[in-house]
């Protein structure tokens, strides 16, 4: 079980570039808001650099540098365009979900819980990616989890017997984590969850999803 | 940040030669410096591609990485990352990008590789950690030389061959727990695990 911050081994797999896209997204969203984990990833990125430097090296073709030069010469304004593009960059969440999380086509599920499956935004991945919304002050029934489920809080906060999870907190839950989350604060609590083990969903959402319900 | 905190930053923060070169590329489009970086990092990146199973695209990856270095060099800030760290993250991202593009079209990828894996110092308004960034590479290099071979082997497979901890365990025919504990021991020495338990 991992609570509030990703564990170091997960950060290492992130730094090495070995995580799936939805998992990398959860980490990236957390890193944007957590200097502590950001600095751990900086060290891990340095580890990658030092590993790369300590491996054998393989000679490159003698004409390669010239082809690189002719490529950069064919696009002279690239750097300025690049700076511009960087400045106008949308956050990954905006790209994925637009500006307003409330405008998404939520599916009311049970009492205070709504869900939205966004797995198809990550083509070629066999993980399930799900948004969940627990209405402000709402309660989810007690439940447990199957397999490892990685969750990041996108809005609001929820609490269970183990603690309070605020915006951008990171949590991994599994079958041992039975809990009964409650949305705390005056906002709806919205989370993004990645379910590693492929889960078969029947036509309608008959089974409820993590972290609130399962 | 207190004055005490700043002292080591100045002492440790001298630019290494590669970071100086990279800065010259960014500031003056210095082609000589660019060539020196290519000579030094090109063969490393080619090996990285081959170790990752991209042997038939290894030179293509080197090219993509260097074109990307040229384009982004104006954003490079030596206070935020050593050149080698910065270049490693670009190589990693180009590798991920190449694999993604082999599998699908860009229309199918609403989220770009860079939205998921950041290059240090870009889209980042957080100067506080720069001290840490500067020290980290030097410290990692020094600590790594004291690690036992079995720990380095495991880390190399994760970083250079993109293997998950489970795949490393299978390949070395050791339990997953052993792989994880080797990694943890190593990361502990590298001080990546600071207060993991109680933050
Ligand atoms: Zn964190």
Task: Describe the protein in words.
The complex is a heterodimer of chains A (214) and B (199). With 214 residues, chain A is α+β, with helices and mostly antiparallel strands. Chain A has two domains: 8-93, Arc Repressor Mutant, subunit A, CATH 1.10.10; 97-212, Jelly Rolls (Sandwich), CATH 2.60.120.10. Chain A has six helices and ten strands; from the N terminus they run βααααααβββββββββ. In chain A, the strands form two sheets. Chain A has a seven-stranded antiparallel sheet with strand order 1-8-5-10-4-3-2, covered by helices on one side. A three-stranded antiparallel sheet of chain A has the order 7-6-9, with no helix packed on it. In chain A, a hairpin with a 2-residue loop joins strand 2 (107-110) and strand 3. Chain A is elongated. With 199 residues, chain B is an all-alpha fold. Chain B has two domains: 4-125, RNA polymerase sigma factor, region 2, helix turn helix motif (Rna Polymerase Sigma Factor, Chain: A, Orthogonal Bundle); 146-199, Winged helix-like DNA-binding domain superfamily/Winged helix DNA-binding domain (Arc Repressor Mutant, subunit A). Chain B is built from ten helices and no strands. Chain B has helices at 3-12, 17-28, 31-51, 58-72, 83-103, 113-116, 130-144, 149-160, 165-172, 176-189. Chain B starts with a helix and ends in a 10-residue tail after the last helix. Chains A and B meet through helix 1, helix 2, helix 3, helix 4 and helix 5 of A and helix 3, helix 4, helix 5, helix 7 and helix 8 of B. Bound molecules: zinc ion. Residues 5, 30, 34, 36-37 of chain A line the site of zinc ion (ZN).
Q: Report the mean per-residue pLDDT of chain A as an integer.
A: 84
Query: Tally the helices of chain B: what do you get?
Result: 10
Structural class of chain A: alpha+beta
Shape of chain B: globular
Q: Would you identify the CATH H-level superfamily of the largest domain in chain B?
A: RNA polymerase sigma factor, region 2, helix turn helix motif
Biggest sheet character of chain A: 7 strands, antiparallel
Following the backbone from N to C, one meets helices and strands of chain A in this order, namely EHHHHHHEEEEEEEEE
The CATH architecture of the largest domain in chain A can be given as Sandwich
- Helical content of chain B stands at 55-70%
Report the CATH C-level class of the largest domain in chain A: Mainly Beta
Order of helices and strands of chain B: HHHHHHHHHH
Tally of strands of chain B: 0
Which pair of chains has the greatest number of interface residues, and how are they split between the two chains? Answer: A-B, 64 and 81 residues
Rounded to the nearest angstrom, the distance between the terminal CA atoms of chain A is 17 Å
SS strand fraction of chain A: 15-25%
Shape of chain A: elongated
Cofactors, ions and other ligands in the entry: zinc ion
Q: Mind telling me the C-alpha Rg of chain B?
A: 18 Å
Regarding quaternary structure, what we see is heterodimer
**Overall SS class of chain B:** mainly alpha
Biggest sheet descriptor of chain B: none
């Amino acid at each position: 079980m991992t609570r509030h911050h990703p564990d170091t081994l997960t950060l290492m797999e992130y730094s090495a570039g070995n995580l799936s896209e939805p998992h990398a997204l959860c980490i990236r969203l957390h890193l944007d808001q957590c200097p502590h984990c950001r600095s751990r990833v900086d060290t891990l990125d340095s580890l990658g650099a030092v590993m790369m430097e300590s491996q054998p090296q393989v000679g490159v073709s003698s004409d390669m540098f010239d082809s690189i030069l002719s490529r950069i010469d064919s696009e002279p304004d690239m750097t300025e365009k690049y700076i511009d593009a960087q400045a106008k960059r949308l956050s990954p969440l905006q790209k994925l979900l637009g500006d307003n999380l409330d405008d998404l086509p939520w599916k009311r599920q049970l009492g205070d819980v709504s869900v939205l499956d966004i797995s198809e935004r990550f083509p070629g991945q066999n993980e399930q990616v799900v948004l969940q919304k627990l209405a402000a002050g709402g309660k989810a029934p007690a439940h447990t989890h199957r397999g490892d489920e990685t969750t990041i809080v996108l809005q609001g906060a929820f609490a269970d017997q183990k603690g309070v999870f605020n915006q951008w907190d990171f949590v991994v839950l599994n079958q041992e984590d039975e809990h009964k989350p409650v949305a705390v604060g005056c906002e709806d609590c919205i989370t993004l969850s990645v379910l590693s083990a492929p889960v078969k969903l029947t036509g309608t959402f008959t089974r409820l999803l993590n972290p609130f319900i399962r | 940040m207190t004055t005490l905190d700043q002292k080591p930053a100045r002492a440790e923060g001298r630019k290494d030669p590669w970071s100086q070169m990279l800065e010259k590329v960014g500031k003056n489009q210095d082609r000589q410096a660019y060539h020196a970086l290519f000579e030094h990092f090109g063969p490393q990146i080619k090996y990285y591609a081959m170790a990752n199973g991209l042997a038939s695209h290894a030179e293509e990856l080197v090219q993509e990485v260097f074109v990307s270095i040229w384009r982004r060099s104006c954003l490079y800030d030596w206070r935020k990352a050593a050149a080698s760290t910065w270049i490693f993250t670009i190589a990693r991202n180009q590798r991920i990008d190449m694999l993604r593009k082999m599998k699908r079209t860009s229309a199918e990828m609403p989220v770009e590789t860079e939205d998921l894996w950041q290059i240090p110092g870009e889209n980042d308004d957080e100067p506080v950690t720069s001290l840490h960034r500067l020290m980290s590479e030097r410290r990692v290099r020094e600590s790594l030389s004291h690690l036992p071979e079995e720990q380095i082997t495991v880390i190399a497979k994760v970083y250079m061959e993109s293997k998950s901890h489970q795949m490393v365990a299978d390949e070395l025919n050791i339990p997953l727990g052993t792989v994880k504990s080797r990694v943890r021991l190593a990361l502990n020495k590298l001080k990546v695990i600071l207060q993991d338990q109680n933050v």
